[in-house]
Structure formats: structure tokens, C-alpha cells
Design brief:
Helices cover about 35% and strands about 15% of the residues. The chain is built from 6 helices and 6 strands, in the order H-H-H-E-H-E-H-H-E-E-E-E. The strands form 2 sheets. It has a 4-stranded parallel beta sheet, with helices on one face. Strand 1, helix 4 and strand 2 form a beta-alpha-beta unit.
């Protein structure tokens, strides 16, 4: 199989996924979920990332579907460097954080291992966290005491992963990734 571009992969995957949903599901039993009007995927376009993010959660049942009153929420944004397209848009992060508070979260923290001065400040993500009155908890990758080794069942190359211990302090983890391709993914 030849290489395909990231853009082609995303387009083809979206078309295939939407086709499966319209046709009745990806797996046996999926059609029952569709019959109950449960939505698992929402696609929104627009130039205003904050409003688009708010709008994207509506068909999914809103943030309240995922964040219940009184829970502790950890948000993992992609803060790798300050290259456009390599980090979560600050307006997207702000919208996610705001929706967590509005859903009744007890605490909302952004967690990371990316350095504040090289990643969070230049990208505008630190300001987004501050505006939404959240905490930023950064774990030093070199401090082994901050990580817990977790086995990867049936892992071929990766037999064990290091998980930030701080993750275990939360009830809900929300990942706000950016689809990208770089040397770290190989």
C-alpha cells in the first residue's frame, strides 16, 4: 500500500465513518445506538473556533454528557512547541474549559509535561487556562516519581507506558488533540 497524505487520510476516514453511520453502524449492535439517537461524532466548521467548539458538543449531548456535577476534570491539550498546526488552538481549549465549569465540575486542571516557557506561553495556551480560571499542572518528564509504569497488554514494541500519576487524581480526562504527523509519531 502506498503512502497517502494526512489530508487524504482524514477525508477518506471521515467519508467512510459517516457512510457507516448512515448505513446503520460500524459494528453489530451499533444500529440500535443510532436508533436511540445517540451521536458519537460531531463535525462543525467555522472561523470562530470558540463558538464552533461549543456548537460541536451540542449534538453529542453537551459537555454534561461527559462531565457530571462535582467531578474533577483533567484536560490534556497539545502544547508541543509554537508551530502553527502543532498545538491545540487556545480558543478551542478555552471553550472546552468553560463547558466543563458550566457542566458543574468541581475542579478543572490542564495537565502536561510540556515546559511552560517553551510551549504553553508562546502558543497562548497558558493565557487560555488563566482566562478560564483553571490550574496548569506540569509534570517534569525527568522526575520518575511523578509517573507510574503501566503494562501495555500484547504490546509488540511498547511493553510498558509511563502514566502521569496526577491523572489518578481526576474523575474525567478530556484530551484535546491536534491531528498531525511528525518524527515523534514514527
Amino acid at each position: 500500500m502506498g503512502k497517502i497524505s494526512r489530508r487524504s487520510f482524514i477525508k477518506q476516514s471521515t467519508v467512510a465513518g459517516m457512510g457507516a453511520i448512515v448505513a446503520g453502524g460500524l459494528t453489530p449492535g451499533q444500529s440500535e445506538l443510532n436508533a436511540a439517537n445517540t451521536v458519537d461524532l460531531s463535525v462543525v466548521t467555522g472561523a470562530d473556533y470558540y463558538k464552533s467548539t461549543l456548537k460541536a458538543l451540542q449534538p453529542l449531548g453537551g459537555m454534561e454528557r461527559f462531565v457530571k456535577k462535582g467531578v474533577k476534570v483533567a484536560v490534556l491539550a497539545n502544547a508541543q512547541r509554537n508551530n502553527p498546526g502543532a498545538f491545540t488552538n487556545p480558543d478551542v481549549l478555552r471553550a472546552v474549559l468553560r463547558m466543563c465549569w458550566d457542566a458543574g465540575a468541581k475542579t478543572v486542571d490542564c495537565i502536561s509535561w510540556q515546559p511552560m516557557d517553551r510551549c504553553w506561553q508562546p502558543t497562548g495556551l497558558a493565557e487560555a487556562v488563566k482566562k478560564e480560571k483553571c490550574n496548569l499542572r506540569i509534570s517534569n518528564l525527568k522526575n520518575e516519581d511523578l509517573f507510574k509504569p503501566v503494562p501495555v497488554p500484547n504490546g509488540e514494541r511498547l511493553k510498558e507506558a509511563r502514566i502521569m500519576k496526577s491523572l489518578y487524581d481526576y474523575d474525567v480526562l478530556i484530551s484535546v488533540p491536534v491531528t498531525k504527523d511528525h518524527a515523534g509519531n514514527k
